[in-house]
Amino acid sequence: MEIKTENYQVKYDKASHNIVFDGSLRLNGSAEYASIFELLNNVAQQEPEKIVLDLKELNFLNSSGISILSKFVINVRKRKNIQMVVIGAKKNPWQGKSLKNLQRLMPSLKLELE
Amino acid sequence: MSIDHKSQLSFTSHLRQELGMSIGAIIDYSEIIIEEIEEIDHDCEYLYELEQIRECGVELIASINSFLDLATLPKSQLNLPAIVNSNKLTIELKKPTQLVIDNCQHLISLIEEDFLVEVEKINRAANRLLEEIKGLIEILPPENNISSDILGAETEVMADGDLLSTINLETSAGTYNYTILIVDDSITNRKFLARQVAAQNYQVATAANGKQAIQMIETGSYDLILLDIIMPEMDGYEVLKWIRDSPWQHIPTIMISALDQIDSVVKCIEMGAADYLAKPFNTTLLKARLGACLEQKRLRDQESLYIRQLAQANQKISKLNNCLQAENTRLSTELEITQRLQTMLLPKEKELNQIEALSIAGFTESAAEIGGDYYDVLQHKGRIIIGIGDVSGHGLESGVLMLMVQTAVRTLIENNETNPKRFFEVLNRTIYKNVERMDSDKNLSLSLVDYYDGLLRISGQHEEMLIVRTGGVIERIDTVDLGFPIGLEETIEDFIFQAQIPLEKDDAVVLYTDGITEAENYAGIHYGLERLCTVMGQNWQQSAQEIRQTIIQDLRSHIGVEQVYDDITLVVFKRK
């Protein structure tokens, strides 16, 4: 599964359950984030053992996007048996605060900052 | 060839017309009588004679066509004197013509008085034809000496004929449901015309006089009018004049006149008649003129239909335009409402100036679409509480949520809630439940800074708080660990903490929303926190208002002409 535009790319690998975000996400409100939200929830619904959210190359995510990620983490948290890993990078200023919040939403979430 | 080709052609067509008129009269009048008789009495004793007259007429036409058909005769064979001089033609024409005359003689003694006029007409036509056949050789022009008069006239007829054949093809190809009104005081003419018109697959209506015609035009719907000029009481001129002055002036009118009434025809054409038809009627000509006039009318009708359609389309467009304007008004109203909501609760300049301990300068500017930036300055029992926050997303919902937060914050302050955990927990629950009811996915960042007696207490998660100490040294207070987004989780109490920072005289504090740090230039580069800190460090000596001004100017020079994506909010305060 893949969502690709000029500015960003979201790629899901079925075998490894890796979700890789790339580029800069500045969509307007939840309506424009619907396709990404659906992709994320489809992954959660499959209840894989482990989901890796790779955000290393996501340079920017606006507040609506952060909300979507937060909702996704809450959704994963509800399912209890999924191990969640989020990979970020210090070079992305937005991640310092937001990724920490994701971890707070789901204390078992493993946060890796490169 | 002894006579030049062109002269021969025009003479042949002249002959065809002359003979054709007589033959046409024979066929037409015999058909009229046959038709009327058939309506009354099928077993009429003289029907046979009439049919024979008609058949003779048809035979005569066929003969003329085979001898004088310009289209089928090869040029090389077109030798007029030879054709005319041959006995074959005269014999072929004479025989049926004589038969017509014989039949007429027979009929005159038998037939009812009603039809006598028609029979006499047939008789006259046949006799005329006989004369014409006899005179064929005499009228033959001497070689190389065709009068230019005849030439001129007949070239016209030919041209006319060519035109007619084209129009006939077109009308027969597209049979249209036209209704033609025939106005003639002579029942014979009416019946004849009606039959001819019906034979062309047109609908027919008839009127016996001018008054009746006008009544019918007023109540019916006609595509063409055949109008006799000479009628008792109200003549054709009067009817024509009435039509031309009425709303039905677009209906083409063909005048019916005797051949010797050319002056009256001219008069009618000048009055607006479309064409004329001479009596006795030539069916080919009638057919052609009907076709031509109706084709013209069809084009005109189509044109006015297009004009109507255009007008309708125009009307539709202007209706849509009105709707669009209404929608635009609604949208701009929504924008206006949200903008008003957002600005109506902002702290007033006057309020800020009354604060003794701090000088405070606030700035907020909405992006093209309304966002949910929040800032407030409240005083309660000597404490000064400065709030700054940012609701995710844009639009009316974000604006409304911002108002709820303002109210809830003020309520908690008025209720003397000073414990940050309890403060934020109640605030969060309030917003969380409302967000749930709104079926919204919005949440917000919020930091509250409480100043009292040289001490800043800050709680809640938002952007960093920047402090510029004397000399331009910047202290950055990270708020990530002081709170959690409001309205995202049911309870956030565990994440709420408070930091306490002393504030010396002339120290400046800057609070901002990400609209400033994430503002992009043409290359997509963010304004960034570093640049904000640098500008602050260089301007630490300035007043709160001046610092605010400098930051906004620097930000604008960074953005340039690029689009502003997010609301921009900035609060600068300095301890007096």
Order of strands, main sheet of chain B, comes to: 2-1-3-4-5
Taking all Cα atoms into account, the compactness measure Rg of chain B is 51 Å
Q: What structural class is derived from the secondary structure elements of chain B? A: alpha/beta
How many E strands of chain B?
A: 15
Give a quick precis of the structure.
Helix content of chain A is 39%, strand content 34%.
Describe this structure in words.
- The complex is a heterodimer of chains A (114) and B (576).
- With 114 residues, chain A is of the alpha/beta class.
- Chain A contains three helices and six strands.
- Chain A has helices at 29-45, 63-78, 95-105, and strands at residues 2-4, 8-13, 18-25, 50-61, 83-88, 110-113.
- In chain A, a hairpin with a 3-residue loop joins strand 1 and strand 2.
- In chain A, helix 1 runs parallel beside helix 2 (63-78) and helix 2 (63-78) packs parallel to helix 3.
- The longest helix of chain A has 17 residues, at 29-45.
- The mean pLDDT of chain A is 90.
- With 576 residues, chain B is of the alpha/beta class.
- Chain B folds into three domains: 5-170, Four Helix Bundle (Hemerythrin (Met), subunit A); 174-299, Response regulator (Rossmann fold, 3-Layer(aba) Sandwich); 345-575, PPM-type phosphatase domain (Phosphatase 2c, domain 1), CATH 3.60.40.10.
- Chain B is built from 18 helices and 15 strands.
- Chain B has helices at 5-40, 47-68, 80-85, 87-110, 116-134, 136-139, 148-173, 187-199, 210-219, 236-244, 262-271, 283-344, 349-354, 396-414, 420-437, 514-517, 529-538, 544-559, and strands spanning 179-183, 203-207, 224-228, 253-258, 275-279, 358-365, 372-380, 383-391, 444-452, 455-459, 465-469, 473-477, 498-502, 508-512, 568-575.
- In chain B, the strands form three sheets. A five-stranded parallel beta sheet of chain B has the order 2-1-3-4-5, with helices on both faces.
- In chain B, helix 2 (47-68) runs antiparallel to helix 4 and helix 14 runs antiparallel to helix 15.
- The N and C termini of chain B lie far apart (126 Å).
- Mean pLDDT of chain B is 83; it is low at 142-175.
